[in-house]
Amino acid sequence: MIMADVDAEAQFQTAMAMLAGNSLSADWKRAAGLIDAAAAAGHADALERRALLECRGVGRPISWGNALDSLAIAAERGSQSAARQMILLADNSYQQAGSIELSPDDWREMRSRVRIAERLSAPAGAGRVLSASPIVHAISDFASAAECQWLIAVADPLLERAVVYNNPTGIDSGRTNQFAPFNFSNADLVVEVVRQRIANQLGAPLACLEMSQVLHYGVGQEFVLHCDFLDPQALREEIARNGQRVATVLIYLNQDFEGGQTSFPRLGIDHRGRTGDALVFGNIDAAGNPDPRSQHAGCPPISGEKWVFSQWVRNRSPDRD
Q1: Alpha helices, DSSP H only, in 209-264?
Q2: 17 in any annotated domain
Q3: d(CA 17, CA 2)
Q4: 12 secondary structure, DSSP code
Q5: From 86's CA, which of 31, 134, 242, 282 has a CA 20 to 30 Å away?
Q6: Nearest Cα to Cα of residue 174 among 224, 218, 226, 220
Q7: Phi, psi torsion values for 282, nearest 5 degrees
Q8: What pTM, to 2 d.p., does this model score?
Q9: Domain co-membership, 292 together with 263
Q10: Rounded to a whole number, what is the distance in angstroms from the first to the last CA of the chain?
Q11: Which structural domain, as residue segments, surrounds residue 295?
Q12: What backbone phi and psi angles, to 5 degrees, belong to 152?
């Protein structure tokens, strides 16, 4: 391995260590500079991560075009993750097994087939209204089957016991399911496409979206009745810094299970979406106050496994200063 390769690998690993977890205090500017330097040296994994920086606008203007260019070069340089993302984004085709090696011309041609504006667009219409107050909307075909397969496959090896907010240990007997958080190390362009689509659906800035999660429920696993809004008394400082959770979006990633509905007992709603369907609901009332009627539960499957993409949305961008 030549010295330039060693330097690029060291730069990349240093940057990834800096951005591990979900720390708002991470030195994003320095880490992004290290990733850019490694990418400029042709480091495939750094190029794939640079794509994420470009679509998020970290240290640069948001550019999906530049992000896709970086992803195509990463695939050409041998990144299998980038290759699979590019195939999905170009052809809406999910490929899990086998090595993918194409010529530079083939990757450029595939890059040209990505219709990113269409992928980022929210489905037409507001969906089916299950409740007007608080808002609960069901939206069909919000994500493609290939996107759902991708999200499950990426999340599966990352699963751990799900935690609850504002708990010293995070562990609560009322939440027995698993989750996989998508921090910078785990996210990718497919995840970001789904996140941007959610932001567009709600008319919210992307920065108002919290770190996304995939939730997994095995037989008997559940999340008992709870509300997603933050307690305005116990978490006053947190809300002042980073905003209130005003909305929640769930995307059902599979349908081959029994039971497992999302239940809103105060609204008389028990909902189960099909693969790719979304459920959007508000957590506050018209005056901006927490709405206890939004209380809901993730009911346990009685057979099979349930997979859900979960996204909390704040009413302001987090304070990163």
Answers
A1: 236-242
A2: yes
A3: 23
A4: H
A5: 31
A6: 224
A7: -90, 150
A8: 0.94
A9: yes
A10: 40
A11: 128-314
A12: -65, -45
